Structure formats: structure tokens, C-alpha cells
Amino acid sequence: MVTGYALYERIRDRFISMTLSDPNNILAGAFADLDSGNLKSSPDEVSESKSEVRNEFSVRRASLDDSLMLESIEREAFPGMTPVTRIERDLTRQNGLYLAAIRGWHLEEQELGPRFAIATKAEKEDESFTARMRRNVDRYVLDRVSRPKLSADYIAGFVGLWFVLDEAHIVIIGLRESDRRKGIGEQLLISALEQSIENDSRVMTLEVRESNAAAIELYRKYGFQNVGLRRRYYSDNGENAVIMTTPPIQSDDYQKMFTGLIEQHADKWGWVSRPGFAAPEGWVEEVPEEPETPTEDGGDAVEDEVKSAVDTDVDTGTDSADEDETED
Q1: Which architecture does CATH list for 58-269?
Q2: Judging by DSSP bridges, how do beta strands 58-61 and 225-230 pair with one another?
Q3: What is the pTM of this model?
Q4: Greater pLDDT, 40 or 271
Q5: What order of strands is seen across the sheet that includes strand 96-103?
Q6: Cis, peptide link before residue 294, omega less than 30° from 0
Q7: Mean pLDDT score of the chain, rounded to an integer?
Q8: Is 140 tagged catalytic?
Q9: What's the Cα-to-Cα distance from 69 to each of 174, 286, 305, rounded to whole Å?
Q10: Is the pLDDT of residue 276 over 70?
């Protein structure tokens, strides 16, 4: 009768003898490790943490100077519902807060003019004769005569909050299509929750399209639960909105869970500079070169493609009465 270990030795010897299919003797090394009890994870199973690496994007409070860029993202995110929110009004609300995910302008984005930068993706990709003529007139005539004032930063996405009594409510969240699947939408949600905790809000609420499974999954990851339904809430197609809310965000249990999720996000995407967030210990800020930004008196300006999303980056679709909202 062949014992278990004898059978193991036969199988091992057979594999080691297969030199043609194992020219680098990888299997022999693996069995040697097994014999010695020195088991190692394969490279594919080990993912290097990026928590000490700074993400290209950061989050800051949005201002009125950002309104054109925010509105361009909103038009892309909610093409059938424009205007979804009154962004300029909300930016000055005493109980409102808008956060923007930003980076510096890339050189290639500074060639097509500010009107191209605030166009929707559909407008940029329209190859009809009329659309191409309009883009040329914008770039070579109107941008020089009356140059739109753009943000000093490229904005990838934004989230809008209202603080009402003891609740924080997400009224809108949107992301450019070209910047989806980079962890930005989730970071905006993290930053919104951080600011709500700092504001002493008890819970956070939002509405999301009933069909937006990806966004609902992301929200549930952060503790949101379905608490109701607003029927025919979305004006573009009459779709229902799912009302979601968190458990008490000031509780120890929630804080522990939230801290773990923040660390997971940093491990995957790198740490993100944001309001109230300290850099990792020992991290030294590198002084970047002064970025070129669109100016009002000359120089070519910026360009970029746009759309919506919440991270996963998915479309979240959150709305509010006359304030619509979505997302990753």
C-alpha cells in the first residue's frame, strides 16, 4: 500500500523530471520550499500598497471660480436633466459645501481653448460640419475676444452637500468619463463623509437611480441602506429614486469601519490630499514646477473630456427635488 507521503514523492519526482516543460526548474524549487515548509505567496497574490504614494488628484473646496467647470461636468452627467442644480447659488449657500477633485492642467489640454474645455463629451466628438465650424469659431475667434474664466485647476469631478439639521445630504455627485475607474468617485464620497463627520452631522442621506446597481453597491460598502423610494423622481425618464442613509456616522462602530475603508482606498490608489487630512508620517512634499493655467489675456487654454460618475467610478445618479445628483 502506497502511503500518502510516498505518493507525494512519486508525483514530485515526476514533475521535477519534466525539464522540457519546466526549463527554469521552477517546480523543483516550489517542491523544495514545500519540503522545508517555506511557503511563499505568488507575485500575483501580493499587491504592493500605495498608501505612501501621493495620488495625482487632490480634493479641495470648490469656489465660484470653478462654476463653469462644474456645470460642464453636470451637463455631461445629466444630459436630459440640465440644469440639475443651481451650482452658483449652492456654492454660496451657508449650509452648502461643494468639494472638487483636482489636478494640474496637462500641457496637451492647453491647446484647444477654454470653450472646448467646458464642452460636453458629445459636443467634442460631434464631427458634423456645423459642430466643427463652431469649435473653430470658438477657438480662433470667441476665445480671443471674450475668454471664459476657468478654474486654475483641472477638475475631474465634484460632490455637493447640504447640511440640514442633523443630516448631511448629497445633492449631486459627478465625474468626467475620462477620469472614471481611478478611485476618484469613491474619494469624493470619502471626503463628503469626512466633512459631514467634522460638521457633527448624525447621518448622511442621498437618492440614487433604482437601476444604478454599481453606485448602490458602492454606497452599501460605506454603510448606506435603502430606506425608501421616490417614485418617478428623475425627470428625464421617470425612473424611481432609491433613498439611502447611513447608520450614525459619529458612532465608534461606523468610525472603525470608515477608517478601514479609507486605508483600503489609499492602499489601492495612493493617499489623497484633502481638507483636514494630514500626509503620511515621513512624507516630504516635492515642490512642483509652476503649472501653466488658462489665462484671460492670451496663451492657449485647456481641454478635456467630460462625463459623470461615482467611483467605482460609476454613475451614481442622485437627485433632489430640483437638485439632481448621481454618480461612479
Answers
A1: 3-Layer(aba) Sandwich (3.40)
A2: unpaired
A3: 0.71
A4: 271
A5: 58-61, 96-103, 154-164, 167-175, 203-209, 241-245, 225-230
A6: no
A7: 76
A8: no
A9: 12, 27, 11
A10: yes
Catalytic residue among 154, 219, 222, 254: 219
- Rounded to whole angstroms, how far apart are CA atoms 19 and 28? 10
pLDDT the model gives residue 281: 73
End-to-end CA distance of the chain: 61
Residues 6+ apart with CB under 8 A from 269: 50, 55, 182, 183, 187
Q: How confident is the model at residue 216 (pLDDT cuts 50, 70, 90)?
A: very high
Task: Please give the C-alpha separations between residue 158 and each of 48, 107, 120, in angstroms, as whole numbers.
Answer: 29, 22, 16
β-strands 203-209, 167-175 pairing: parallel
Whole-number pLDDT of residue 10: 57
| Options 207, 303, 323, 325, the catalytic residue | 207
Residue 248 has pLDDT above 80, yes or no: yes
Grid coordinates of 63: 469656489
pLDDT over 80 (residue 45): no
pLDDT at residue 30 greater than cutoff 50:
no
Active site residue 219: yes
The residue assigned the cell 516630504 is 284
